[in-house]
Amino acid sequence: MDCIFCKIVNGEIPSDKVYEDEFVLAFNDIQPAAPVHVLVIPKKHIESVVALTEEDDKLIAHIFKAIRVIAKEQGLENGFRLVSNVGADGGQSVKHLHFHILGKKQFTENFG
Ligand code: AMP
Ligand code: ZN
């Protein structure tokens, strides 16, 4: 499959890894939008939030546990922004589920 994040998972493409366990990988975004910009992905290929099924319930809980660990490791006790873009209108450019952790920047803007 021609998926850039699957290639990162299997080591075909290098990444600046910040966290890894059996089910989850996290690495620094190549084009950071904040001083901390980590992408958290499941190792399993899932296209986006809307492609999740009941089978993935445990995996999602696991991803959020990893997000808590990473936020702590990255020193984000003051907060952070957590974003998952979905599909064309969401501006999703990589079609492998991922959560952006954006931190060490004061976000003030809302949406629109
Ligand atoms: P999205 O637009 O939500 O699909 O986010 C995709 C993100 O992946 C963007 O912020 C890109 O900068 C990032 N990205 C794309 N290729 C790589 C890569 N090889 N290593 C790290 N981050 C990447
Ligand atoms: Zn993939």
List keywords for this structure.
binds zinc ion; 5 strands; 3 helices; single chain; 112 residues; binds adenosine monophosphate; globular; alpha+beta
Structural class: alpha+beta
Q: Roughly what fraction of the amino acids lie in strands?
A: 15-25%
Please tally the β strands and state the result: 5
In N-to-C order, the SSE pattern is HEEEHEHE
Largest sheet strand order: 1-2-3-5-4
- What's the tally of helices? 3
Task: Using the alpha-carbon principal axes, give the shape.
Answer: globular
Mean pLDDT: 96
The radius of gyration over CA amounts to 14 Å
Helix content: 10-25%
Q: Give the terminus-to-terminus CA distance.
A: 34 Å
User: What composes the largest sheet?
Assistant: 5 strands, antiparallel
Which hetero compounds are present in the coordinates?
A: adenosine monophosphate, zinc ion
Spans of at least 5 consecutive residues whose pLDDT stays below 50 are none
Describe the protein.
This protein is of the alpha+beta class and 112 residues long. It has three helices and five strands. The chain is globular. Bound molecules: adenosine monophosphate and zinc ion. Zinc ion (ZN) is lined by residues 3, 5-6, 45, 96.
Helix/strand layout:
Blueprint: H1 4-9, E1 17-20, E2 24-28, E3 36-42, H2 57-73, E4 81-83, H3 87-90, E5 99-103
Antiparallel strand pairs: 1-2, 2-3, 3-5, 4-5
